[in-house]
Amino acid sequence: MEEELNKEEKETPVIATEHIEDDIIQHLNNPVTSLKPIVKQYLTSIVEVKKEDNRFYFSDGNARVEVRVVSDEIIRVRMAPHSVFLDDFSYAVPQVDQRVSTFRLEETDEDYLIATNTVTCKLNKETFHISFLDNHSSMVMSEDSSPMHWEENVEFGGYYVFATKNCLPEENFFGLGDKSGNMNLRGRKFQNWNTDAYSFGWDQDPLYRTIPFYIGVHQGASYGIFFDNTFRSYFDFGKEDHLKTSFWADGGELQYYYIHGPHMMDVVKRYQSLTGTHKLPPKWALGYHQCRWSYYPESKVREIAEGFRERQIPCDAIYLDIDYMDGYRCFTWNKKYFPDPKKMIKDLASIGMKTVVMIDPGIKVDDNYWVFKEGKENNYFCRRSDDYFMEGHVWPGRCQFPDFTNPTVRQWWGGLYKELVDLGVAGFWNDMNEPAVFGAGTFPNDVRHNFDGYRGSHRKAHNIYGMQMVRSTYDGLKKLMRNKRPFTITRAGYSGVQRYACIWTGDNVATWEHLKLGNIQCQRMSISGAPFIGTDIGGFSGEPDGELFTRWIQLGTFSPFMRAHSAGDTSEREPWSFGEPFTSINRKFIELRYRLMPYIYSVFWEHHRYGFPILRPLAMLEQENIGNHFRQDEFTFGDKLLVCPVLEQGATSRVVYLPKGQWYNFWTHELLDGGNEYDIEAPLEDMPLFVRAGSVLPEYPVMQYVGEKPIDEVWLNIYYADYEVNSFMFEDHGDTFAYEQDIYLEKKFVVKGDGRNLFIEQMIEGLYTPNYELYDYNVIGLPFEVAKVFADDKEITDFYLDERKRLRFKSNKNFMHIKIIGA
Ligand code: GLC
After folding, report:
1. Is 359 in the pocket of ligand 1 (CB under 6 A)?
2. Are residues 58 and 83 in the same domain?
3. Both 263 and 336 in a single domain?
4. In a domain? residue 297
5. Interval 775-784: pLDDT, tens
6. Structural domain of residue 623, as residue ranges?
7. Is the CB of 358 under 6 A from ligand 1?
8. What's the rounded mean pLDDT across residues 551-570?
9. Which atom of ligand 1 is nearest to the CA of 291?
């Protein structure tokens, strides 16, 4: 039966027409491509097999397919239409290391089977359909519904390349980086083409970034597909045909990685193992940041910075948007507004305020401007196919644009930051790097790029332009800052951009819909491998009222990147701009961010070291529960905190779903059983927040900025559980790369209660010694009367129960074993 169907597919080109609509739309969008008959060619039957190391080559006599075993759980597939593979080069995956030594090729009458310890890749001899199976359960995770196919591109050469897979009736899809709209991607179609999407709407596509990686979940198990192709690419999750999932691109190679789960968390970690994780950011970057387009002149910047200190609202950084420059020329200062930047930056630093500045890619065409002159003399700017310079208008007027895909240009650009670094600028913000051009939108397709020696037109380089810009910024800063961690932020990016920068979601709008959208975008980016993400708190354009702004600050407290930003034509937008009660509530939440700093920092470490996402949607926490595939308005930050933001105007309560296990209400300490929904009070001054029972949640004293004072006292909040729970806390210098030489401290806690006693064990890894001395032990939720407390086998007698029934004691010792014995 299956065979018959497959034959039919090949004889009747039904599938071949499935992308006709796209081709027409593409033609309309791209008048240089002439409309032509669509002739798609499909792989036919396998006639030849070859093995070279961990690579297997299958041929149908014309085209070749390479299957490469990367690890037990990752397999890469490539297709060469006329047997000639393109150069094996990727900006996303710096190295495809082989990480497994045992795998085998087997042959049956129907199939070739490449099996690792975990996964089998099956290639049907007759149909060339490729499928991936879980060895343990024999479940088919992903399976071609037609053979890989291609279509010649007469205009540019090369091919449009296509893959179409079965989409199971109950299958759902997640990830794909920065997409607007609902978290679950099923039933929708997307395009990746980095776009300056000012004021984007719900479901608008494409946006600023390209992350061609998705996760499929069916029958309680997950797998991932990473289609590493920088050309304009497309994904269809059962939209055109509800039983098919397709992905295709306007050029390049059909090359994808199958990434096995079976848990979504495994898929994400394995994707990160290919494309890298964030390095640890400087700790101050995890504080609250204040931005606006633009704070100027200098007196305004000082007024805002001092405003935070006067009102005792913590803040670590203030941003200078484009108006600090001289006529929007990058790497210059407007001397009228900022006569003495060095002194201003120093004075700001003296009150703990870091300065972050904007740098755009568009360089003003001006022979008296040193950056333009250097770029021109050295031939660093992009050119059109006939050698004219690529010119377009951006903020400074007529501009040319460095070719960041050229390693020499990247090196030059990285060095341009020297003066700003010497002035004391602490962070750098790369914007408009889709690249954005006024009027035209972006560069024309014929612009040429070096592409690290693998040359290509803008069709190939567009989606990685922004990532290569911020890569050059990051690498340059790393050299200039001598072992201090750079802080960089970018708007555009491609898979792997997380190795170089944090991201903000771009020009959002001050509406409740955008608050909801931002909440989903941050979660989605987090499970798409780029978890250091935040929205413009308050909305970039439009005017929030006090309620919306405060609800946004509450969500932002649990955004990996926490920054308020607004457009120049809006009213003032500082945490105090809306008066009371909003100012006090905003302060309470920003303070909470600083109290939780040791936990937040530890979650970043967990991401960097082990590839865990920072925000984890419910679909990830309980993938076997299909209901959770549609719950998108709550998430955990790390493993311990469940965040349920209030996203409705006027709401004073909201329904939350608690995942299985037990959870403490962070505010009231009430213990609730997971696996259920609850209606939770949420007056404006509160946002429902829960702590996983058994957690050790470390807390620092409130600071006005990271490093304001030495931390003399650390709270260890220990939440009782009747079962065993692991937690950890990470500490180090906070701003160097010494952690790469093991100069850090990872405290691992195991908490276990049995109804009558509670045991807390600690283990320590790493070489760093923190400089605080007092530990404030704070045990929440003990279900028994306390008789005795032992710490490292000595009895403690000065414990007490406070007014909230928490068992408290302080010590200058970091105890390895604590026993709380019931009466
Ligand atoms: C872009 C950015 C925005 C910035 C503005 C001016 O719109 O997305 O954040 O404020 O340009 O530089």
Report:
1. no
2. yes
3. no
4. yes
5. 999 999 999 9
6. 615-692
7. yes
8. 97
9. 10
